[in-house]
Amino acid sequence: xxxxxxxxxxxxxxxxxxxxxxxxxxxxxxxxxxxxxxxxxxxxxxxxxxxxxxxxxxxxxxxxxxxxxxxxxxxxxxxxxxxxxxxxxxxxxxxxxxxxxxxxxxxxxxxxxxxxxxxxxxxxxxxxxxxxxxxxxxxxxxxxxxxxxxxxxxxxxxxxxxxxxxxxxxxxxxxxxxxxxxxxxxxxxxxxxxxxxxxxxxxxxxxxxxxxxxxxxxxxxxxxxxxxxxxxxxxxxxxxxxxxxxxxxxxxxxxxxxxxxxxxxxxxxxxxxxxxxxxxxxxxxxxxxxxxxxxxxxxxxxxxxxxxxxxxxxxxxxxxxxxxxxxxxxxxxxxxxxxxxxxxxxxxxxxxxxxxxxxxxxxxxxxxxxxxxxxxxxxxxxxxxxxxxxxxxxxxxxxxxxxxxxxxxxxxxxxxxxxxxxxxxxxxxxxxxxxxxxxxxxxxxxxxxxxxxxxxxxxxxxxxxxxxxxxxxxxxxxxxxxxxxxxxxxxxxxxxxxxxxxxxxxxxxxxxxxxxxxxxxxxxxxxxxxxxxxxxxxxxxxxxxxxxxxxxxxxxxxxxxxxxxxxxxxxxxxxxxxxxxxxxxxxxxxxxxxxxxxxxxxxxxxxxxxxxxxxxxxx
Length: 619
Known about the structure:
Blueprint: H1 2-7, H2 14-39, H3 42-47, H4 49-68, H5 79-95, H6 104-115, H7 124-133, H8 139-155, H9 161-181, H10 189-192, H11 201-207, E1 229-231, E2 237-239, H12 240-248, E3 267-268, H13 270-282, H14 295-302, H15 305-318, H16 323-339, H17 341-349, H18 352-358, H19 365-378, H20 382-390, H21 393-403, H22 406-419, H23 423-431, H24 435-444, H25 447-460, H26 464-472, H27 475-484, H28 491-501, H29 505-513, H30 517-526, H31 529-543, H32 547-555, H33 559-568, H34 571-606, H35 610-618
């Protein structure tokens, strides 16, 4: 939301600024409370649980209040972001006053120890339970707890008070027990700690409660943490091996939604894989290794010595300086890389990528075409994508995209698409000046070239920072032409890109200026399910705060197709149609009220003045 507000060129009202300031202050309070929960005394958090829960409830209510006070209709933000904010707001409303069931045993154990005389003997089983549940089993944890209690003393001006003194004595008892139970506790916990040692899994299970795996990180089929998450055509994500077994068994539907799969293509979910890796790191768990991660060693053994020798000979030709040798070697590497995955890994390991990158600027058009196509084929291997970008290939690929033969330009666009699958590469490619020549190829390329350019632009524009670049490169008029050209072979791609761009202020303005409403209404009425969905998504953005587009769509007869889409469309199509119908009904109601007021005013003006008539009769 803040990213879109920052990019907006519209002024923000004082009322909205005050509401955003209130949200900022509440977020600061939430951050401080979370910091205390993370770094504060664990013993204090348990003993003062009622007070802590009260503070959490107060901050939750403040966040809900602050979010409710913002007038989102007055902000220049996309409907997707508004939907997300509404979802968060609904979660806060549900969370108000709701608390998890406390650990009664932990509280009672701690309270009994807290209230005991200092000299009284304590059951070792109770001390063990406390040490384990409070996660005070290592010297680092015990030191951190001691520091947290010292900070509490410092915050009282040096007077600890009876309660903090009792907590300190309680900590000493736990520490004495842990040191007695584990004499090797002198070293820092990261060295001696059983959870960080290779052989201490049993101790780890005893001392640390295993973190709960978020549902979104589990495969809906196996319910296990996903190693290689992939997306199917319905948009659901599964573990690759599980969904492959499902498809091999002859199923043609999505296991979770039961929708028919339009294709068996599996797209790697890089974002989710990255989030899973981050979560594993944050929870001290080794990130799951994908089955394909063993491919390089497997490939090395699969490539025979003769094949490796052949690759080395080809690489020597690439560096020979002889144009004919370079051309033939680049062509052979292109074919080898296309043949199988083992070759792709072996060629990259032999050091071919930097040499091929160097040939992207060669004046020989055929060599240039072979080089860019070889890089395209090599980029199919995921591990090679990073090597290609780090070798400085992107500027060379953009050069081919601008200056190469038509086939070379097509393959350059396809290479950029392949590389842009990785999120950080979207930023790199967008900053390299790739978007204007992609728009040019989309406009003047062959049918295949247009498809390659469209898929690359779609992927690049997923990153918010590239949307404005695409609009300024003139992509919207090109897309509108593709929507209306005879044959209509690019309608799917054009609408998908417009749907992404319409959430950006510049994109929305450009689409509106291109007089897109009649075309969008036509697609909503007669298009394929996915195209109807995307056309409705574009129209939702266009009609946000713009009654002119609403009136135009209504005059063109959009109501009946919207009602049908709301009942029979895809899930996203139904949502977009419902949003449009709601806006349309509000607009019609406003028009009726305006008309009633105008009619009333007209009647008042047409009534004769009685006093004037009487004066006329008297005279």
